[in-house]
Design a protein that fits this description.
heterodimer, A: 138 residues, alpha+beta, Sufe protein. Chain: A, 3-stranded antiparallel beta sheet, B: 244 residues, mainly alpha, Helix Hairpins, two-stranded antiparallel ribbon, 8 helices, binds FE2/S2 (inorganic) cluster
């Protein structure tokens, strides 16, 4: 499998590898898997509960090079985005950026799923506080 | 009964014209008129290639017998003096027969193939892995990562080996479950008693169950292979297990 330069770069120097404590304030965790290959990806966001902006992101991926690159790229993209903006990231954006071939599309889908799962987890845990903070600020 | 007959004779389900003499070929592998080899690509599926019913419980000996039979008939050596068209067709046929055999011989690949056939373009919902399974796989991977960072002492090695044995046992249990569902599937396909709407319902349910089990199996296999790699052993990679 010939990887694009960008995939190789992310693979060799993955950004934002690691974990946040799951219960830490503003942290949302997404854990997903690809049934095609059995690879597993964990992606976490740390949101400023007052502003709704993602301040930091981490990932851990046990999978192929494309999955590692997809999740590494995703964490870079997530930082600085609001939770709503983050929800708009699509796997096709990742495919285009990393020039993934058709057989590797499911790896980018895994990253999109992980983002969605992390956002949903964040909303479930901290969304109310965010709303309350927003109401208090206005 | 009809199945046995289909196997004996050389029939395919497709009706076509011979590429050479334009006479009708009703599913024969060689045109009855001009005796030219016919392209296998018109067979509708792998089960059809061997004239076997589309079921999950296959008679493996019968499958092998028919495979040898076709391999011999399509063997490129036999076509050395034939026209380029015939050579090309025989080569393609050999390749197809090989892939069909490898897929059907393997009980897991067979199920995957059948699901693809049954679903066609209408894919059901992708199986969602139970979260606790993913969590467990992540834990094993993280522990493995930690173990790999330092030299593998005897104690760690033992721990990883035990872990792998435990996971392999679970995979076997999943494969058993898959066999059970496969039998249910065949019973459904053979039976005609249930009302058709119930049948569709059950059909969908069984397909989803098979997909679910295959997914769990894939997660287990990945971790088992990673453990084997770390232990410096060759992982036993399944034909249909692709990664990297
Ligand atoms: S091959 Fe599994 S995620 Fe890429």
């Amino acid at each position: 499998m010939a990887y694009s330069d960008k995939v190789i770069d992310h693979y060799n120097n993955p950004r934002n590898v690691g974990s946040f404590p799951k219960e830490a304030p503003g942290v949302g965790t997404g854990l997903v898997g690809a049934p095609e290959c059995g690879d597993v990806m964990k992606l976490q966001i740390k949101v400023n509960v007052d502003t709704g902006v993602i301040e930091d992101a981490r990932f851990k991926t046990f999978g192929c090079g494309s999955a590692i690159a997809s999740s590494s790229l995703a964490t870079e993209w997530l930082k600085g985005k609001s939770v709503d903006e983050a929800a708009k990231i699509k796997n096709t954006d990742i495919v285009n950026e990393l020039k993934l071939p058709p057989v590797k599309i499911h790896c980018s889908v895994l990253a999109e799923d992980a983002i969605k799962a992390a956002l949903a987890d964040y909303r479930g845990k901290w969304g109310k506080k965010e709303a309350a903070a927003g109401a208090a600020a206005s | 009964m009809t199945e046995a007959k289909r196997g004996e004779g050389v029939t395919r389900s497709a009706r076509d014209l011979c590429w050479n003499c334009q006479s009708e070929v009703g599913g024969e592998y060689f045109c009855p008129q001009c005796v030219k080899v016919q392209p296998a690509s018109v067979w509708s599926d792998y089960f059809d290639v061997f004239g076997l019913p589309r079921k999950l419980g296959l008679d493996l000996e019968e499958l092998q017998r028919r495979f040898y039979d076709w391999s011999r008939k399509f063997h490129p050596d036999l076509f050395q003096r034939a026209t380029p068209e015939e050579q090309a067709i025989s080569l393609e046929n050999s390749a197809l027969v090989n892939t069909a055999y490898r897929t059907l011989r393997d009980p897991i690949a067979r199920v995957e193939y059948l699901i693809g056939l049954e679903e066609g373009a209408v894919k059901g919902i992708p199986p969602k892995a139970p979260l606790d399974l993913l969590e467990e796989m992540l834990l094993v991977q993280e522990a493995l990562e930690g173990a790999k960072a330092s030299a593998l002492d005897a104690q760690t090695q033992k721990r990883l080996t035990d872990e792998r044995a435990r996971l392999a046992e679970r995979r076997r249990a999943e494969e058993e479950r898959l066999l059970d569902v496969s039998r249910e599937w065949d019973a459904l396909v053979e039976g005609s008693s249930a009302a058709s709407r119930d049948r569709d319902d059950l059909r969908r349910k069984l397909l989803d169950r098979m997909k679910g089990i295959l997914a769990v199996r894939a997660y287990l296999t990945t971790v088992i292979n990673d453990l084997s790699d770390a232990l410096g052993e060759d992982s036993q990679t399944h034909v249909s297990h692709r990664r990297h």
